[in-house]
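MODEL INPUT / OUTPUT PAIR
PAIR INDEX: 1
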Amino acid sequence: MVVGIFDSGIGGLTVYDAIKSHLPDLGLVYFGDNKHAPYGVRDADDIFQRTRDGIQILFDQPGCDLVILACNTASAVALRRIQERWLTPEKRVLGVFVPLIEALTEREWGDNSPPIEVEISHVALFATPASVASRAFQRELAFRAIGVDVEAQACGGVVDAIEEGDYILAEALVTSHVEALLRKMPLPDAAILGCTHYPILKAVFQKALGPNVKIFCQSELVARSLGDYLHRHPDKIGRGKGGKMLTTGDTLKVSQRATQFLKYAVQFEAV
């Protein structure tokens, strides 16, 4: 089997890299819709259509029956609609919100017992404008925990700066967004980096938030969750050759940005 990884740009490479490290024998195909990034400022119908088209590109790759939406905006806005109205029974699409919330609430994968009180009570959520507007994080959290106060901050401009390789601007924007959130929630217990682009700036978030705030990133959590899923669904494991990196953007530019992002050489192909 080949697992497809979809993102609007290069942020999903944090998930790709973690899965590659955690499951080195698993075939992977990555698709970034860089031409249309970022998704976080688009409307719901546009996000759904572009996400659906991207998933189909991955399903068209030989052996790909499972796709990870390594894009929080797509997971928040489009995943439920895709699963309920478009997906065929033999295909699976998984998002990135649930593994993170399970870690935050200290639940095992697939634990659907009633919501309970958890240790963390004040959570800062940093995400794209579309993810924040969807309230998907709060909805999923409410299924698992009670008494958790969530303050969300829409981090406009951060994804654009990362996609362009302007990390000076990205760091300045992160600091500004953290300061804005802290004016609303001065003492968060934990922070959620609700975009797969953001882990590259985790140290900047941590510095702005202070050392006592625990930061949750998705890449490692999603990789472990996928490993657990495949363990429980051995029928999904089979031979498959991965290694393709696909993009709708300029292949040279995207390859250069991805290499800078991952710190090792990556070569994209056009679709």
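PAIR INDEX: 2
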Amino acid sequence: MGGIKDESIEEQAAVISGILVFTDGACSGNPGPGGWGAIVARPDGRIRELGGFAEQTTNNQMEMLATIEALREVRDDDSPVTLCTDSTYVIRGITQWIWGWQKKGWKTAEGKDVSNKDLWQELAREVMHRKNHGEITWRYVRGHIGVAGNERVDEIAVEFSKGRRPRLFAGPLLQYKVAIYDLPEFEALPEPKPKVEKVAAYSYVSVLGSMAMRHATWADCERRVKGKPGAKFKKAKSADDERAILISWGINPSDVK
């Protein structure tokens, strides 16, 4: 990580008006053991790194907790906040989705319960509290492209997720070895990926030895092939798809039971 030369500190800090925050979360297994990390840089030159561990969690939950804890750290500071994160989930959730969820009684557009409702409510409370102290600018920073602040919070989060306790810095910017004010050009949020609708199975086919069978459910198919050396199995999306699969296996479709 690149350090900050003394003479460049004021120039770099001038890019941000107020408090600069980086947050990130990590999870092994998703769900599984997780960790979160944050950096808070105050206008007076004080830096504080934060982080923590959760035994059973998800990546999104750790991203949210990092954001919540960072905002709690500065909740009564009278200064605007620029919060940098690589989590489109956090940014879209708190700036777009949350209004609809609240109106619908914390239900999604499909009528399902909102995932991580308790964390969204905590985050909403911290954001509302800051209205009396300074606005929050949510800034998307693409992960793993060498942005020093983002790389450092990722490192903290990963270390905690592995059950280790990294040394967290607290002190003046002059002594901090992370070039957190080296920020990339503003980048808009990536377009959300379109939802891919799952195509219902026409059938499941399997071959064991030289005998092919057709199954109505995956459970039936799995029972036949699980643990059997040389077994083949596949989901067919249509009658034509089923026929093509069987032919590719060297099976005459009319021989399937």
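PAIR 2 NOTE: The chain has two domains: 6-175, 203-255.
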